[in-house]
């Protein structure tokens, strides 16, 4: 379809597109089923309710509407309602601690918070809390009881026509900054929508209007938000919302609702592949896509053996809305490969010296169901940093667009890859000290800052270490200034960090290795024997 101006326009398109999908089920959640007509009406009601708040713009941007919810229908209504009202939707992890919530709310200046009762209870009377708070679910304490029920946001009336769109800011998603402070990636309506147009250029298209899509990746994550929820809305498909991932229960939903497309992260595929008869439960699945973190070859093979279908692997970032490459764009998927650039995206590899060592031609190619057992993935180029260009790139970081694409439209990802002789890409390293836990970004600086706020900690360093289930996990090296136990230190982290950011192991050392400029030499920590982390 022609790319609309406002992302919420796709909802109305599904009601008035001539395919008679008005009564088609748009979303299933627990025992509820919403048609596209239901969703469109609910989005209108939320847009009118948000408009009635008369929220002022500031800094040249519309007001921000923070949404801290699990995957459930209210998320869909609030998200598209904010966009239809000409406001900025801001997905927030409902598992964040009060400290993390406060950082994001203060930095964004959000005027509205739509959240679960638990989130509102954790936030309490924080000064950073928006004046307008809407509760989804029953109150669990005095703080959450003070918020207005979500139903009170809905206002009846005539259909709302969106005015914002195109290059206007649509979504603000925060990622942990390398210095430990979160920073908001600014995504326009155009960037979000174009990523679906780009993916639709692959033959055959990954998602179509007849698909039933499992939406188990959290919607506060760019991958779950746009590759999941966004693809369902863009194509007028059906989404099965899963608010808390459980391997066995999600397989039951796949079989019960005849799910045809699975969008997942590595831990989901690991968990499924270890269950008996999971291939039988996935008999209706025609396509499985994995993103957000590397997928182990053994897991991919178990899935292929049980289902007869490969797991197609994609690569992207929050800042790219999010897909840049996928093995769907390769003639055959190769073990360990992130595939090729999707149509409309250019990828180049740049050496440490600034020389371009390779550039994609981004052809549109036909995907194949065969798994290439013989593909070696031998390097055809020297490794280089991935830089990308495309209409799906973000507009820079909040609030002034700093560190966005350069004047030529190119943006450096911080990831290092090589291309094999056939043009398929393979990730080899990260320039940034990013840790990927279950596909979620963890920046060591943030964890280190929390550790050193404990009065017993003199210094701390954090590394990502391999984990068979989550891909990586967080390990902390700590120099103590006074006696402290591991349990006490981990409890301190749990009070200040989302669970996936918390260390799963702590090693107490006498000193940490430092460079001549005083920076911790983490490469030395990685190679040092356990219990030894002295200066060299």
Structure described in brief:
The chain is α/β, with parallel strands linked by helices. The protein contains 15 helices and 26 strands. The strands form 6 sheets. The protein has a 9-stranded mixed β-sheet with strand order 2-1-11-10-12-13-14-15-16, sandwiched between helices.
What are the main properties of this structure?
536 residues, alpha/beta, nine-stranded mixed beta sheet, disordered C terminus
How helix-rich are the residues, as a percent range? Answer: 25-40%
Shape: globular
Kindly report the CATH topology of the domain at 435-527.
GMP Synthetase, Chain A, domain 3
Total beta-strand segments: 26
CATH class of the domain at 435-527: Alpha Beta
Low-confidence stretches: 362-376, 531-536
Describe the fold and architecture.
The protein is an alpha/beta fold and 536 residues long. The chain has a domain at 435-527: ANL, C-terminal domain (GMP Synthetase, Chain A, domain 3, 2-Layer Sandwich), CATH 3.30.300.30. The protein has 15 helices and 26 strands. The chain is globular and about 65 Å long.
Topology:
Layout: H1 9-15, E1 25-29, E2 32-35, H2 36-52, E3 64-68, H3 73-84, E4 88-91, H4 98-108, E5 112-116, H5 117-123, E6 132-136, H6 142-145, E7 148-149, E8 169-176, E9 182-188, H7 189-200, E10 212-215, H8 222-235, E11 238-241, H9 247-256, E12 261-264, H10 266-273, H11 278-281, E13 287-290, H12 297-307, E14 311-316, E15 323-326, E16 340-341, E17 346-350, E18 356-359, E19 384-389, E20 410-419, E21 425-430, E22 435-437, E23 440-442, H13 444-452, E24 457-467, E25 471-480, H14 486-496, E26 505-508, H15 522-527
Parallel strand pairs: 1-11, 3-4, 3-5, 5-6, 6-7, 10-11, 10-12, 12-13, 13-14, 25-26
Antiparallel strand pairs: 1-2, 8-9, 14-15, 15-16, 17-18, 17-19, 19-20, 20-21, 22-23, 24-25
Helix pairs in contact: 1-2, 2-3, 10-12
């Amino acid at each position: 379809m022609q790319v609309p101006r406002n992302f919420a326009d796709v909802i109305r398109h599904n009601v008035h597109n001539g395919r008679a999908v008005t009564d088609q089920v748009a979303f299933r959640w627990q025992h509820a089923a919403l048609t596209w007509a239901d969703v469109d009406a609910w989005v209108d009601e939320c847009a009118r309710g948000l408009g009635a708040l008369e929220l002022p713009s500031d800094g040249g941007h519309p007001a921000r509407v923070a949404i801290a919810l699990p995957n459930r229908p209210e998320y869909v209504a609030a998200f598209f309602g904010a966009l239809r009202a000409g406001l900025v939707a801001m997905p927030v992890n409902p598992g964040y601690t009060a400290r993390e919530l406060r950082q994001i709310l203060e930095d964004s200046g959000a005027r509205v918070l739509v959240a679960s009762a638990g989130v509102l209870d954790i936030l309490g009377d924080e000064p950073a809390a928006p004046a307008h708070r809407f509760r989804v679910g029953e109150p669990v304490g005095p703080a959450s009881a003070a918020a207005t029920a979500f139903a009170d946001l809905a206002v009846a009336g005539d259909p709302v026509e969106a005015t914002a769109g195109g290059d206007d800011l649509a979504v603000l998603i925060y990622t942990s900054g390398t210095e430990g402070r979160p920073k908001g990636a600014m995504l326009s309506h155009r960037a979000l929508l174009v990523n679906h147009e780009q993916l639709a250029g692959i033959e055959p298209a990954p998602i179509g209007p007849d698909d039933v899509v499992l939406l188990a990746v959290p919607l506060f994550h760019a991958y779950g938000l746009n590759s999941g929820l966004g693809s369902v809305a863009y194509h007028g498909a059906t989404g099965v919302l899963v608010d808390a991932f459980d391997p066995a229960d999600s397989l039951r939903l796949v079989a019960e609702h005849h799910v045809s497309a699975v969008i997942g992260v590595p831990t989901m595929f690991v968990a499924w592949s270890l269950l008996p008869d999971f291939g039988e439960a996935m008999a209706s699945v025609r396509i499985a896509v994995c993103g957000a973190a590397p997928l182990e070859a053994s897991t991919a093979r178990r899935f292929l053996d049980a289902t007869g279908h490969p797991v197609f692997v994609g690569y992207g970032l929050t800042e790219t809305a999010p897909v840049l490459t996928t093995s769907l764009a390769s003639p055959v998927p190769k073990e360990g490969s992130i595939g090729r650039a999707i149509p409309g995206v250019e990828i180049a590899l740049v050496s440490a010296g600034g020389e371009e060592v390779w550039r994609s031609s981004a052809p549109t190619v036909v995907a194949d169901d065969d798994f290439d057992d013989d593909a070696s993935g031998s390097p055809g180029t020297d490794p280089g940093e991935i830089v990308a260009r495309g209409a799906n790139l973000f507009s820079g970081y909040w609030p002034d667009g700093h560190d966005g694409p350069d004047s030529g439209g190119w943006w450096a990802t911080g990831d290092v890859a090589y291309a094999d002789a056939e043009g398929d890409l393979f990730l080899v390293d990260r320039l940034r000290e990013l840790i990927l836990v279950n596909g979620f970004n963890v920046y060591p600086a943030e964890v280190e800052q929390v550790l050193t706020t404990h009065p017993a900690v003199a210094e701390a360093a954090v590394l990502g270490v391999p984990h068979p289930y989550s891909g990586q996990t967080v390990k902390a090296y700590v120099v103590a200034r006074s006696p402290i136990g591991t349990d006490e230190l981990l409890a301190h982290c749990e009070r200040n960090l989302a669970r996936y950011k918390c260390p799963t192991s702590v090693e107490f050392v006498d000193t940490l290795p430092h460079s001549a400029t005083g920076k911790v030499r983490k490469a030395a920590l990685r190679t040092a024997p356990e219990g030894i982390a002295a200066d060299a």
